Amino acid sequence: MSGAQGQFCAPYRVLPPKKAPVGSMNTWLSHLNRLSPVRPWMGAITPLSLRSDLIAGLTNATIVLPQGVAFAIIAGLPPQYGLFTAMIGTFVAAIWGASSVMVSGPTTAISAVVFATVSEFATPGSSDYVSLVLLLTLMVGLLQLTAGLIGLGSLISFISHSVIVAFTAAAAFLIAVSQLGPAVGLENGQGGAIHRLVAIWENLDGINPTAAAISVVTLACLIGVNAIDKRIPAYVVALVVGSLMGVIIGTDAAGVRTFAALTSAFPTFSPPEVSFDSVGLLLPSAVAVAFVGLLEAISIGKSFAIRRDESHDANQEIVGQGMSNTIGSFFQCYAGSGSFTRSGLNASSGAVSPLSAIFAAVSLALLLLLVAPLLQFVPVPAMAAIILYVAWKLINFAEIRHILRSSRSETLILLVTFVTGLVSELDFAILAGVVVSLSVFLNKSAHPIVSVGAPTDVNGRRVFMNAAAHNLPQCPQISNTRLDGPLFFGSVEHVGQAFKRLEQGFGPRTRILNLKGVGKIDLAGADFLLNELGRARRHGRNLYLIAANPQVLNVLKRFGIMARLSDKNLHNHKSTAIEAAVLAADDDICAGCELRVFHECTKKAKPPDLKTGSGDQAGLQSAP
User: Per the database record, which ranges form the STAS domain (predicted)?
Assistant: First the structure.
């Protein structure tokens, strides 16, 4: 083989080693290796890292104590279930997870979804409700574990970040509304946000001033301590202040409710009660909770991996979350995920490895020995105030403003998810957001950018830019067209229409089609290229392809496109393609062209100067 095709295709004849088939023994062994409790980080522990992780773990235990109680209440569960999850769930996820500093356990968003979905089938706090929640946790864990073992981690990145931003905001709003009543001494009503707000409005005369005062003082203390120094365990301090205020005033005499003492400070082995009817009832909710948990965990894990310049294995993280929820369901834990608040505290406290999260779980267990009996002195309004603060901090106002200002498609995803979460169910909001997100993705994929480039000088450098956007002159014979995006069955129609629009009023003799921005070509895309090649030849025109990606070259070869190209029609760089196109351009047209768009045009005859008769053609005619 000679010419361009031989020159640029030869390096790609050596194929990489074949990967083992998906169903092969080696592949399954590599997947099952993710289940091993012996993780790489365990061999890197040093006395210095051990000390740093211990300090970070102790710090984390202080913040998760009130949070665990608050999140359990949000989920409609007795307080101890949040603490069980903060112990067992955190411990297991630290061993099998992929992040060095992420701390898993109970989270606000998942607690809200659990409450919104399971409360439809049982009364929150009842034994039936607890049984359904534990079964839901087992189902979530198995779904996540399966997803991690078959390698679905990369699919999570296809879901827009706006989905989780809007979903979290909707969950925060619902959480806040659910705690307004308890914060002022009213009963926690039933139904959605609108029903609860209406119930509070209709019962304003029943507000307990003492309860309202306790919640205001607790909230003010929490905000004030956070403003002074974020290293102070503000949740603990605020809860202590609110509890002391309740003791001084006298909660019983003032009609202010307090929490019941913990029935148990430590979880016990208790397998979930499984029935086919309950599984069918909870399956949609389990999918939603599993999905939300994975979005949270992977987003947090990737975020801290980038900050710390570490690698992140999304599939291993999914396995870690699946193991956490699966094992946790047997020890009275409800579904959890990664916590950005506790992970951020862990990182800022000097955590080095997942051992810090393990220390946090163990420290919480020891701490409960001391404080478990004190829960009966905590007023409900004090905890409601803390949950209101958590809900407020859950909304990412800066990110919402950024989305609203920067992208109409992301704004659509944001609004659909948020509004659906308010007027419908939270799990359905996730589904709606995902559907819109995927629709936007498919729409963008079906409309790749088709543009004509022309050279210009930028800061003394010769670069190619969009000719139409920058009003640059184009060669009358050569169209330097670039395609950015996939060329597949969903986009060929759009690309074909774009080609026709570019040809209106301008029929170039030669088209250079740059495929460097194309990452995917399927059978329909290959047929489109073959049709364009045939159309060009029928009209006496040339078509040059620029391709350097080995995968794209392999597709061109597999679908027979290379066999239809001559040696000079395939290039791996635009300079060689332009050089070949200019060389094949009509000399008579070049002689009369004053644009000289490309550097390569200097190799063609220049137009004669009508006054002096000078020029390449004149010189050639006068030569002996």
Answer: 482-581
Residues 495 and 448: beta-carbon distance below 8 Å: yes
CB 333 within 8 A of CB 151: no
Q: What is the pLDDT of residues 51-109, one digit of tens each?
A: 999 988 887 887 787 788 888 988 999 989 999 999 999 999 999 999 898 999 998 88
pLDDT tens-digit map of 489-547 = 999 999 999 888 887 756 667 889 999 889 889 889 999 999 988 888 888 888 899 99
Identity of the residue numbered 474: Q
What's the per-residue H, E or C state across 344-374? Answer: HHHHHCCCCCCHHHHHHHHHHHHHHHHHHHH
Please state the φ and ψ torsions of residue 481, each to the nearest 5 degrees.
Answer: -95, 135
Q: Three-state DSSP class for 120?
A: coil
What is the spatial distance between Cα 166 and Cα 292, in angstroms, rounded to a whole number?
12
Strand duo 337-339 + 478-484: pairing: unpaired
Asked if residue 609 has pLDDT above 60, the reply is no
Q: Helix %, strand %, coil % for the chain, to 5?
A: 65, 10, 30
What backbone torsions phi and psi does residue 147 show, to the nearest 5 degrees?
Answer: -60, -40
| 401 CB burial (10 A radius; 0-12, 13-18, 19+) | exposed
Query: Would the pLDDT of 459 be above 70?
Result: yes
Does residue 375 contact residue 69 with C-beta atoms inside 8 Å? yes
pTM above 0.70, yes or no: no
Domain 446-609 = CATH 3.40.30.10: no
Q: Which strand (E) or helix (H) includes residue 455?
A: strand 449-458
The full set of domain ranges for the chain reads 48-442, 446-609
C-alpha 157: how far from chain center: 5
Q: Which pair of tokens denotes residue 59? A: 């710090």
CB atoms within 10 A of CB 119: 18
